[in-house]
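Example S7 (structure tokens).
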């Protein structure tokens, strides 16, 4: 969903164009819309300082200096002072519902709240937000600009995982969709049948880097554990922002070929067989 403005001649303008053409009038319209939003969602005004803190945290994140988030993602370990504070529940929620980037901003936008007044305000407001408001903030993470160093940081996280998990992450990226049905992978371990050149039915099995259902289940568990994917029922959702960051790493010939073989195997040539 996107906000649009209607110009004086009835033309549709996106917000960026409207701000360029009529900045003061557009600002007034946005303020009017925000006050209307406040009537329906009472915590709307509190979103401004929180989102400002989020954006500052993501842009100011220095990957080379981070030790806390990486260890939390890989082993759920954290400084004892954090574990005894309200931040603990927020960190768990952010990783579960928003992935690694949401975890980054939740941690660094609320760090040192006892002496940093801006971060203290963000923490205070976040704790008071409704569950729906927090989840919406976590889901909006893909809209915020990030420090470029996050790319290498994510690569290092991926490098800490075992080879099977890295392979699965790469195949998921190469499948070309952020939502992938589990049934696609179940077909990998089932034989595919087709007509041979002599008219006899042939049964073929598929060999890919995700070699068995057990390997797949373990790899998927660890990808979900570090927040790279979310599994909901029969669907795997690959974090879109992470997928964009790691695009070059994922799209290597080996995994592209595996993705093609999986798709070809999952959809048989002769459905009657």
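Recovered sequence:
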């Amino acid at each position: 969903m996107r906000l649009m403005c209607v110009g004086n001649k009835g033309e549709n303008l996106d917000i960026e164009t409207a701000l360029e053409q009529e900045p003061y009038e557009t600002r007034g319209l946005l303020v009017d819309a925000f006050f209307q939003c406040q009537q329906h969602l009472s915590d709307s005004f509190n979103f401004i300082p929180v989102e400002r803190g989020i954006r500052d945290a993501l842009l100011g994140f220095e990957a080379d200096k981070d030790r806390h988030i990486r260890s939390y993602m890989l082993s759920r370990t954290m400084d004892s002072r954090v574990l005894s504070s309200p931040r603990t529940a927020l960190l768990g929620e952010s990783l579960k519902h928003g992935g690694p980037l949401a975890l980054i901003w939740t941690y660094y936008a609320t760090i040192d709240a006892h002496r940093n007044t801006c971060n203290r305000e963000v923490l205070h407001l976040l704790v008071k937000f409704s569950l729906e408001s927090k989840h919406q903030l976590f889901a909006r993470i893909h809209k915020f600009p990030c420090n470029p160093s996050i790319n290498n940081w994510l690569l290092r996280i991926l490098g800490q995982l075992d080879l099977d998990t890295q392979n699965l992450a790469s195949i998921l990226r190469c499948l070309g969709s952020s939502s992938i049905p589990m049934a696609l992978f179940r077909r990998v371990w089932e034989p595919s049948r087709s007509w041979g050149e002599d008219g006899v039915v042939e049964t073929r099995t598929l060999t890919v880097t995700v070699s068995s259902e057990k390997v797949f289940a373990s790899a998927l568990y660890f990808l979900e554990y570090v927040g790279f994917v979310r599994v909901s029922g029969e669907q795997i959702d690959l974090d879109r922002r992470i997928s964009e960051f790691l695009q070059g790493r994922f799209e290597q010939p080996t995994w592209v070929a595996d993705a093609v073989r999986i798709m070809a195997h999952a959809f048989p040539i002769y459905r009657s067989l």
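Notes on this example. The mean pLDDT is 85.
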